[in-house]
Structure formats: C-alpha cells, structure tokens
Amino acid sequence: MTQDSPGQATRPAVPDQPDDWTEPGAYRVLDDVWRLPLPLPSAGLRAVNVYVARAEDGLTLVDSGWASPDTVAALDRGLAALGHTTADIRRIVVTHAHHDHYTHAIALRGNGGGPEVLLGRGEELTVDAVLADRSAAEPAMPQAAMLRRAGAPRLAEAMTEFGRAIRAADRAPWDRPDQWLDDGQAVAVGAHRVETRATPGHTRGHVVLRDEAAGALFAGDHVLPHITPSIGYERAPEPAPLRSYLASLRLVRDLPDALLLPAHGPVARSVHTRVDELLEHHEQRLSLALDLLHSGATTAHQVAAGMSWTRRERKLDDLETEHAALAVLEIAAHLDVLVDRGLARADDGTDGVRRYVPAGP
C-alpha cells in the first residue's frame, strides 16, 4: 500500500503486469483478485479484462467477456491457472450491457443453475430493447435516426445496413439479469465488499464498483487508461449522454483516489490522473467544436468532418462506418453540451436536421 501525501487515501501499488496488457494469463491485482484478459472478435479492441475474485464460497467475476468459443477457452485456461473451473463461479457483476461485458455472463448462467448475474438498473431499457429487436422483422437502429438529425443521411443508411449485418451474424445469448443494481448498493465481489456507483454516459446504466477498503475501483469502460470510451452507443440511448458522462467523471473525481482496474487497458495507479485527462480531452473537443461553428459549420456531421480522429489523426471520411457514426454522434453530444452552457444555439429544421450557431449578443 502507498500513501501519496497527507490527507490522501491509501492505495495499493500497481502489481506486476505484463508489458502487453492483452497477453493471456491470470494476473493478481488485489488480495484474492486476478485480472484475466479475454479475447474479443475485433481488430480494434483486442481484449476485455475480466476480474476474478475468490472467497470461501466460490468465485465472483466482474464483467464476463463476449460469448464465443475463444472466450470460453481463455477463461477456462485462466481459471485453471488459479485452480478453479467455471463451476466455481457463483456471481457475475457486469458494469454495463455491451456484448463484450454481458453476453458471456448470460451464457455461463445458462437456463438455470449457473452463476447469478447482476447489472445496473439503468441498463433495463437497453436489455429490453435488444430482446425486442431479436424478435422483430427489422432490427432497430436508433443511431440511424440520430445520424440523419446530425446531417449525415448517407452515413445513416450505411449504419442501417451495418446493423442488419451485425444482427444476422450475432449468435451471442441475451436475457435479463437476475438482479438489478442500484446506486450505492453494496455487493460482495469475492471476499471484498464493494459499493455500486451509477456512472451513466458510456451507457445509461453503466456502474463502477468502489472497493474502499482496498483502495481500488473496478471501472468498466467509464475510465480507460489509453482510450476515450464511446458515448451513448447503445440500443436505448439517452438524450444527453455527454452531459451524463462528464457528470459521472466528476463524481468519480470527488471520491478518494484509487487503483484503476479498467475493462480495457493496463492497471493504473491513479483513477484521478486519468479522469483529469479525460475531462481535459472533452474540454478541448468542446472548444474545437465551438471554433468550427464560428468558422461556418452548422451540423454535427460538418463539425466532425472538420476534426481529426483516433491517435493517428484520421479524417472522418477515412473511418469505417461504425467508427465514423460514433464520431458524428459524439460531436452531436458535444454540441448539445455547448447549448447547455449557453455557448451555442440549436434549431431543429423542417428537414429534421439539427443545426447550431454560436451564441451571440
């Protein structure tokens, strides 16, 4: 354990980890808690961290991975290294209802007799929307309507086709959890007692798990060490996801600092340090978006096209369909925050496109 300075909370030091955080294995992060990186079917995001906590009555997982044969094999190997099997899993606490966190929990639970699955209550709308979507003749794609409103009709059509292709290929199981988690609710994660904190933004029901005694935060996708999480990309998106995300970042910043246990990326020593970076990143994007409005851009699509994206500084037209859609929708959320702050005005035109101008005297 380390003490940074007088008045700050005691936090554990970062335990030894491989240089490549995606390297398969089981890596201790806390007493009786290990990190297991499980593979993802994505070229961009290669793995998700699943945390395994041990107690006398069995194991608890924080997040579960994407239900697939590769995930099953990697989890089996990781648990075997700890002397366990999936039969020892009693509980799975899921930070949010994205496929790479939730679907393997549903697969492990099966039709009964498997581990209990817990999920933030705010995810109920999305879980039910996915269930309804799977029985519908045509998949719902709320992002397509949002893109048309953002002035990107061709991208909206491409996203609709993308949604059809994804649904046709999706074999991952989906169902409601056994228990909905409320903000402030205490949960047992192995031998650790953690506090559930609602952190909407990445999804409307995202939660983090605060282990006050150990000085650690199971952060899910809310605070990631190397990338900024997408905002509001879900089946039932909320109206103001960036406003919620910034408020959730400040909520976590107001808690005592902690060891960062993220869902993607390496373990990091300070949640606060990364939260400060994320807040600054979004302030820079807000400032740039306002500058582009002053330069004559009026729609979220036009503003997004004037920016660069990813660490490689790519232009919007160079991104794949899903990533381009996420970029435009993220900027739409930024522009709405500028409206909230009184720095811009918005008008929904008769053509269904939302246009922005800088606020003036």
Structure write-up:
The chain has 9 helices and 16 strands. It is of the alpha/beta class. It has a domain at 27-138 and 167-279: Ribonuclease Z/Hydroxyacylglutathione hydrolase-like (Metallo-beta-lactamase, Chain A, 4-Layer Sandwich). The chain has a 7-stranded mixed sheet, with helices on one face. A hairpin with a 2-residue loop joins strand 8 (186-189) and strand 9 (192-198). Helix 4 (142-149) packs antiparallel against helix 5 (153-169) and helix 6 (241-254) packs antiparallel against helix 7. It is globular and about 65 Å long. Residues 1-8 have low confidence and may be disordered.
What topology emerges from the helices and strands here?
Layout: E1 27-30, E2 33-39, E3 47-55, E4 58-62, H1 69-81, E5 89-94, H2 99-109, E6 116-120, H3 124-134, H4 142-149, H5 153-169, E7 179-181, E8 186-189, E9 192-198, E10 207-211, E11 216-220, H6 241-254, E12 259-262, H7 271-294, H8 300-305, E13 308-309, E14 314-315, H9 321-340, E15 344-348, E16 354-358
Parallel strand pairs: 4-5, 5-6, 6-7, 11-12
Antiparallel strand pairs: 1-2, 2-3, 3-4, 8-9, 9-10, 10-11, 13-14, 15-16
State the CATH class of the domain at 27-138 and 167-279: Alpha Beta
Could you please say which CATH topology of the domain at 27-138 and 167-279 applies here?
Metallo-beta-lactamase, Chain A
Q: What is the annotated CATH architecture of the domain at 27-138 and 167-279?
A: 4-Layer Sandwich
| Spatial ordering of strands, largest sheet | 1-2-3-4-5-6-7
What general outline do the C-alpha atoms trace?
Answer: globular
Mean pLDDT: 94
Query: What ranges have pLDDT less than 50 throughout 5 or more consecutive residues?
Result: 1-8
Strand content: 15-25%
Coarse structural class: alpha/beta
Main beta-sheet annotation:
7 strands, mixed
What is the helix tally? 9
N-C termini distance: 54 Å
**Backbone CA Rg:** 21 Å
Task: Let me know the number of strands.
Answer: 16
Query: Helical proportion?
Result: 25-40%
